[in-house]
Amino acid sequence: MKKTGRIILRILILIILFLFSFAAVYPLIFLLGGSLKSTSELGNSLAALWSADGTLHWTWLPFEPTLRHYVELLLDEPGYYVMFWNSVKIVGGVIGGQLLLSLPAAWGFARWQFPGKKILLSLYIVLMLFPFQVLMLSEYLILNRMGMIDTLWALILPGACSTFPIFIMYRFFSKVSTDVIEAAKLDGANEWQIFWRIGIPLGMPGIMSVIVLAFLEYWNLIEQPAVFLRSDRLKPLSLYLSTITKENAGVAFVAALIALLPPLFLFLCGRKYLEQGIAAIGGNE
Amino acid sequence: MKKRMKHRNKKFSKSNFSRACLFLLPSLIGVLVLFVIPYLDVIRRSFLDGTGQQFVGMENYKTVVENTSFRLAAGNTVLFLSACVPLLLFLSLFIAIYLQKNKTVGNWLKSVFLLPMAMPVASIVLLWNVLFTRNGFLSDFLAWFGVTGQNWLNTKYSFGILVFSYIWKNLGYDIILWMAALATISPEIYEAARVDGTSESQCFFRITMPNLWSSLFLILTLSLINGFKVFREAYLIAGDYPEQHIYLLQHLFNNWFRDLSVNKLAAGAVLMGLVLFVLIIVFQKLFDRNMS
After folding, report:
1. Which chain A positions have a beta carbon within 8 Å of B184's beta carbon?
2. If we measure between CA atoms, which residue out of A175, A164, A278, A270 comes closest to residue B181?
3. Contacts of residue B121 in chain A, CB cutoff 8 Å?
């Protein structure tokens, strides 16, 4: 009796696990399949979207696969390029800035005891936990005064100053053993050399985690560009709204899929670092 | 060089402070200029009138708290967070425990669960529309049970869709957090307990749970903060004025911003910051005390 109960529980767990993993992977299959379908096939299978009594006949694989919509997006949608490059600029700027600011700061926190350290660390953690809406007005006021509203700097600068990467790097730098540092000091290395030659190489997994996490976050930035940018030529890809109509459904699928490729690629390459980074956030001190 | 080193090991020494300062300075300047000083300015503004000249005391706060949109949005936000955060915490904990025990499947599956983190909302909106529209996937599925289809995003069930989106997006993240916490419990404790004849469920309540308690603070806080990011889905799917069950504080703040209601926005930002700050402190104290 107890044994059959266990088996049922096991099967139940497996079903739940399967359902959730299916939900995690399905969007990819959906977009890939849709992007290869022809306009007429999409028009039929998505009829529910544009006519009240239309029904959905979605098949996983396209009947007659075509790359036409890829070509169409590349040739006919210059706006898409612009948005894509805006996203690249934002993400690149933010990651560069984060590394430049957060690496020395995290090293400073991890390496030395000094008065006020605890308060400063708490301030950084609270800032890291505040959602954008709390800081929206204050960020706007200062960015406006600096004349940066409606420029990409309005997104890059606050992103670069985010305290989140400092928190992650602090965890990684704290693990660097003092023996190595003492040995370097005996060899006559100065503080800058210790940071550059020991801290950075030993903190490399942390740095990779910061890069992956920042990429996923800032590629998907929505609130900030919606509020701080006005000109359409500055909008990033995350605000590209695929309005699906009967005529352009295929292009919408391709656009959605291509927007997903850079983070997906980074995810597949940097999976290990992403997991390490998240684990570092939650790890006990 | 060598002479200086002899004095170096003293904690809290002056040279430590100046050295740390040098490393911290760039970041500190950025944080102060971009976040701290402007936020102090916002606190000041929250006590002034629209022109920013006249001191009006708590007037702005009164306006905000009495505002019906604010009440609706605050209520929805609280309801949303208190529904989805515990659900996510339990679900991810149980999956994490299972994956921890089944290492080979676990390594593989935890990456799969993490995948939604890499999917931008802009790409997902398309699928969400097909899923939840009238005659969409969900309606098709429910038709088997005799439920009439409707555009689910325009009904009170939109709230459930948002909870689903949140779980979908954050499940992998929380599983990794839990697994990191579980990994810190040494397996020897379990072995010792098993030798003493402790049952599986007793192991869970007597060993696993108490050891996870201290991690709960961070995981809870992070899940809460990620809860605010669900606005991205809501915004791209339903726009500035969504169905009233998913009208969240973030929508309200955005709309105030567009209307340039600076004093309402200032008071709102201070209130929200204060509530979150208190929550974070309370969580931390709560779980710290139980630790020791």
Report:
1. 283-284
2. A278
3. 220, 222, 238
Q: How far is residue B145's CA from residue B71's CA, in Å, rounded to a whole number? A: 37
CB atoms near residue B110 (< 10 Å): 20
Mean pLDDT across chain A, nearest whole number?
Answer: 87
Question: What's the CA gap between B272 and A133, in Å, rounded?
Answer: 9
β-pair partners for A274: none
d(CA B278, CA B275): 5
Single out the residue of B80, B59, B23 nearest to residue B246, CA to CA. Answer: B80
Residue with tokens 């040279």: B15
Give the DSSP per-residue string, B77-104: HHHHHHHHHHHHHHHHHHHHHHHHHSHH
Say if residue B167's pLDDT is above 90.
yes
> By CA distance, what is B123's nearest residue in A?
A256
* Pairwise CA distance, residues B33 & A160, whole Å: 13
CA angle A105, A108, A112 (to 5 degrees): 160
Structural domains in chain A, sorted by start: 71-282 (1.10.3720.10)
Residue A177 DSSP SS3? coil
Contact: B222, A31; criterion CB under 8 Å: no
Tens-place pLDDT, residues A159-190 = 999 999 998 899 899 888 888 888 888 888 88
Burial label, B190 (beta-carbon count in 10 A; 0-12, 13-18, 19+): middle
* CA distance, residue A260 to nearest chain B CA (Å): 6
What is the spatial distance between Cα A124 and Cα A126, in angstroms, rounded to a whole number?
6
Name the strand (E) or helix (H) holding A208.
helix A204-219
Q: Is B166:B117 a contact under the CB 8 Å cutoff?
A: no
Residue A47: which residues within 8 A CB-CB, separation 6 or more? A54, A55, A56, A57
The burial class, CB within 10 Å (0-12 / 13-18 / 19+), for A217 is: middle
For chain B, domains (ranges, CATH) are: 15-45 (no CATH), 72-113+152-291 (1.10.3720.10)
Containing A205, the helix (H) or strand (E) segment is helix A204-219
pLDDT in tens, B181-202: 888 888 888 888 888 888 878 8
Whether the model clears a pTM of 0.90, i.e. scores above it, the answer is no
Cβ pair B115:A28 closer than 8 A:
yes
B contact test, residue of A146, A161, A166, A276 with most B CBs within 10 A: A161
Smallest CA-to-CA distance from A276 within B63, B93, B114, B18 is with: B114
Count CB neighbours of B60 within 10 A: 25
For residue A156, which amino acid is it?
Answer: I
| A85 at B interface, C-beta within 8 A | no
**Is-contact A125 A216, C-beta < 8 A?**
no
Nearest residue to B229 (alpha-carbon basis) of B160, B166, B164 = B166
The complex's ipTM works out to 0.86
